[in-house]
Structure formats: structure tokens, C-alpha cells
Amino acid sequence: MAEQTTLDTLYLVGDTDKNVSLEIIIGDVGQTASSLIAIDQEEPKDHEGSLSETPIGTNRELSNKVLFITTTITDTSELSNFTEMIIRLRGGLVFREFHLSKTVEEDHQSVPYACRIKFLNV
Amino acid sequence: MILKKIFLVLCAGMAVAHSYAQENEGTTLDLLKAPSSPASNLLGFATTDVDKPTDISSLMMSLQSASGSFMKLPSSYAIDLAPYFLLNKVGGSTTDLNSKKYGDVFRQTFVLSVAIRNPDSTAGDFVSSSTYAGIGFKFSLKRPKYNAKTEAVLDKIHDLQQKMNKRNLTLLRELEKDSELIVLRNKLEELAKDAARTGHLERLNDTSSEFHKTEEKILQKRREKDAADSANNKETETAESKQAIADDLQRAAASFDGARSGLSWELAGGISGEFLNKQFNSSRMHNAGIWTTLGYTGKQGLAILGLVRFLHNPEKIFAKDNELNKMGSISTLDGGARGVYSPNGGRFNCSVEAVYRSVLSSNTIDPSWRLIFNADYSIFRNQKLTFSFGRNFDGVITKDGNLVAALTLIAGLGNKR
Predict the structure, then answer these.
(1) Are residues B142 and B15 both part of a single domain?
(2) How far lies A55's CA from each of A8, A62, B326, in Å?
(3) Are residues B403 and B267 part of one domain?
(4) CB contact under 8 A, A118 and B162
(5) Do B162 and A36 touch (CB under 8 A)?
(6) Count: domains in chain B
(7) Searching chain A, which residue's CA lies closest to the CA of residue B24?
């Protein structure tokens, strides 16, 4: 599995009032993570660990806005040096899932992840 | 029929383990750590009968009987799978593992366990010409929470992480003005609009498409910008710099041991079968059971656990001292207790376990008991000195010590290390 810690992509939305939801899953089991989640220049929200499926706005509200997610995963697992971040977006034109991961070279190191997802209205 | 199904599940377990090891080469399999293995309990090669609750991994493997003067291959294997983790249905971060919601606790602690035992002639209550296979499950009804020290370390790690995230968010937002990235991102948007207009949204996931290639170019540009940022930081090292935060994080993470304290309650069960003469098409049920473990773990690493277990043995069981029961089906009820001392973060563990077995379905067989002292010391990851001494249900006094270093066998199980 190729290592990737950055994401810069699009999520297609339409002119509807259907909610778009965000889900973040942190791995490997036993790692410690915190995230900052922001849309455009709004004040970012802190979150610790995985984020269960959460509505972040309707298709129309998110149209042409940018979602920023910066996450740091620290290796606190005794069994694994693997860190992983899975981002799932639902509610737009299609479901999309993004896998980011990196294995730290030394025990207890951290991996910063930086994601930018633009909601493109097509 | 049911035994064949068990065997097929075992094969599926092995296949999952194999593919997991291949795909996820960064994950270390701790061959000596199978803390939640009800299948090995049924087949009689678990280190203890009364398990202490521990955090699980998505895949745990255990090779047993690897001592034997190092002249033979391990004869017993156990694999524990956490299906919700393997299927990415639940988060596994330390924050997630401290969730109080019962749905989370169940999914994070639910373990399917499979085991195979090829007994030798010294395994009294097992037939050496047969192969035994078992499948079991385990989950927590009540999980102890992290202790105060663990919580304090996690708070510190989260604070440092947010400092790092804040810094990275600022950099990410600054890149919105980068002219090279703007050109590439505009191109990406045009490609996406074109895909939507022509009804070819599959291009967004096609790794050979122009859309994907443009995404790659953007990521490459981002990596160049990140590298430039890191280089700038080396020249202007401050307390807030990326490296300083990373170093603080590494120190804080090194002091994390994941210790928990409080009440715990687990439920486990399973079924096992015997393949006569190691033949797949000649099998019978060996035993089946369900048991629950209730305990309390103190702040200093001392845990007291109690066990109640019901076992049904259709053929035979050692319930009578040093003598096989030939009376057909027997059901037994076990009551046990275990005291465990494992200093937080330490490599040393010791425990004393006592289990009393009463026979429910016969009044001609006397009850039996088991008393075992266990101690182990982790030398390195995957290398552990163990010592065990005590009396088993069959009345035999056992004393075992081993230095297990069966790492060469990993290759046979599919890991490329």
C-alpha cells in the first residue's frame, strides 16, 4: 500500500438540500489522533479520535466551498507502527472514500495528515 | 457437518490473516499476545483459563508449544480476529477505545477466535492421532476505563497534536493563493465537470484517467511546498516549530501505556471438534461452552477476576483425578478466580489462578480442581520468558518454562518480514 499523507481533490455536489456527511476512521488500533476540521475560513472545530458519520451541510450550502482537515496521528500502539486515516463522504453525487496511511520509522513518532476537499457543484 | 464448517471458518481465518499480513506490512503481529482466545481455552492450550481484559488488535496470532527443546514446529495455533476493525467499521484510536457507548464497546471488543491443536502423546486428555479445531467468540459487557495517568498522557498528546494541526491548517489555507496550485486545481475542476456532463463519473476513480494524473500533479506540488516548509523550519528552530512539537509528541507518546482500571465483565463461548486420524471427513464434537469473567483492575496494576463457565463434553473429560471418563456426555460447571499483578508499563506479569470444576450430569464423578501460578517477562517484542507451575484438572503437577522465539515461522504464515 503506497504511503500518502496529503489529499487534494474534489467532491461533486448538486443543487439539492440533501445533507452531505463526513466520516473519519483512524487506525491502526491503539494509535492516538486529533483533527481540526474547517470549511473555508470558518473557525475550525477540534475533534479527537475517529469521527462518526456527521452532517456538515447540504449540497447547496457546501457548493464551491473547501473542506480542510488537518490530522495528527501519534504512534501509541504497542503492536503496530502503522497509521491510517480513512475519509468517507456521503450525500453528494456519489459516495467517495479516501485512504491515507503512513508507517512511522521509529516507535512513538507522529504523522501529520493534511486534506483539502473542494465541493464542486456540477 | 458442523465440524467441517468450523474447519472452513479456520481456513477463512487463515486466509484473512494471510491477506492482512500481505497488505499491511507495517503491522507487527505479536505472536505471544493472544489475550482473548476462547478457542484455545476450549482446546486446553490457553495460558490461563481466566483472561484479564486487554485492548485488542485487529488480528492476533498465537503459536503455542513452541518450546519442546526447539526441535519441533509449534503444534497449536490460535488466531483472533476483530471483524469490525478488519472491515473498517469502527475507529480504533485510543479515544475511540475509551468510548462509553455500549455499541462502540461491543464492536471494539468483539473477537472471533479460531484454534487448531495437534496434540502429542503427552497431552493426556487429547488423542495424539487426532487434530482438534475450535471456534469461539468473546466480547465485553463492561470495559474498564483508562486510568488517571493514561488520561493525563492522552490529554498532553492531544494538546500537542492540536498545536501541530493548527500550524498545518494555516499552511494549508495559505496554499489557496499559490498560483501553480490554482492552475492545476482549475484543470481538475474542468475535468470533473466534463466527466459529470458526459456521464463518465467513473473517471474520478480511474487511476489511468487524466483526472487522476492531475490529482497526482497537485499532490506532488503539495509535497514540494511541504518540503520547503520543513527546510525553512530547520533554519529557524523555535519552540513552536514543527520539529519541536514532533519531539515533544514522541516523548509524551513514549510514556503512554494504555493502562485501565475499574470494573470489567466479559462473555465468551465456543465449540470445538476432533478430526479422527486427522481426517477431514471423520469428525466428532469435542466440547462446547460458554463462560463469563467479572473483575476489577486497580490503579497499581493489580487485578482480581472471577470466572463462571459451563462446558458440555459429549465424549469425555478429565473431571476425575488422573482417569479418563468413559461415561459419555458430561456437563461441567467451573468456578474460578485469578489474581494478576502487572505493574503499569512493566514487562513483568505474574498471576495465580484457581478453578474448581463440578460435574453437573453425573454423581459418580468427583469434582476436580486446577491451581496454576504463571509468570512471564517480555525480553523484546515477540520474545518472552514464561514460567508456569501448578496442578491441572487431571491431577498432574505441571511445570513449564519457555523462551519462545518462533519468528521464522511468520514466513510460513504469509508475512513478508
Answers:
(1) yes
(2) 21, 11, 63
(3) yes
(4) no
(5) yes
(6) 2
(7) A1
Domain residues for B102? 2-147+259-412
Q: What value, to the nearest 5°, has the Cα angle with vertex B45 and ends B299 and B64?
A: 90
Q: Which residues 71-100 of chain B have a CB within 8 Å of chain A? A: 82, 85, 88, 90-97
Q: How far apart are CA A56 and CA A20, in angstroms?
A: 6
**B219 touches A: beta carbon within 8 Å:** yes
Residues B240 and B327 in one domain: no
**What are A27-86's pLDDT values in tens digits?**
898 999 999 999 999 999 999 999 999 999 999 999 999 999 999 999 999 878 999 999
Q: Which residues of B touch A12 (CB under 8 A)?
A: 192, 196, 201, 204
- Establish if B61 touches chain A: CB-CB under 8 angstroms: no
Return the pLDDT at B64: 53
The pLDDT of residue B124 is 63
Q: Would you state the pLDDT for residue B9?
A: 55
ipTM: 0.96
- Of B212, B231, B254, the one marking the end of a domain is B254
Cα–Cα distance, B196 to A116 (Å, whole number): 21
Q: What type of residue sits at position B112?
A: L
pLDDT, tens only, B145-178? 999 999 999 999 999 999 999 999 999 999 999 9
Residue B237 lies inside a defined structural domain of this protein: yes
Q: Show which of B221, B254, B287 is a domain's final residue.
A: B254
Residue B391 in domain: yes
Q: Considering only CA atoms, which of A88, A86, A101, A97 is closest in space to residue A56?
A: A88
CA distance B185 to B137: 50
Q: Are residues B111 and B192 in the same domain?
A: no
Q: Which domains does chain A have, with CATH numbers?
A: 6-121 (2.60.60)
Residues 83-102 of A with CB under 8 A from B: 86, 93-94, 96, 101
Grid coordinates given for B67 = 518450546
Q: Tell me the chain A residues in contact with residue B176 when contact means C-beta distances shorter than 8 Å.
A: 66
Query: Between helices B242-254 and B210-235, what is the axis angle to 10°?
Result: 90
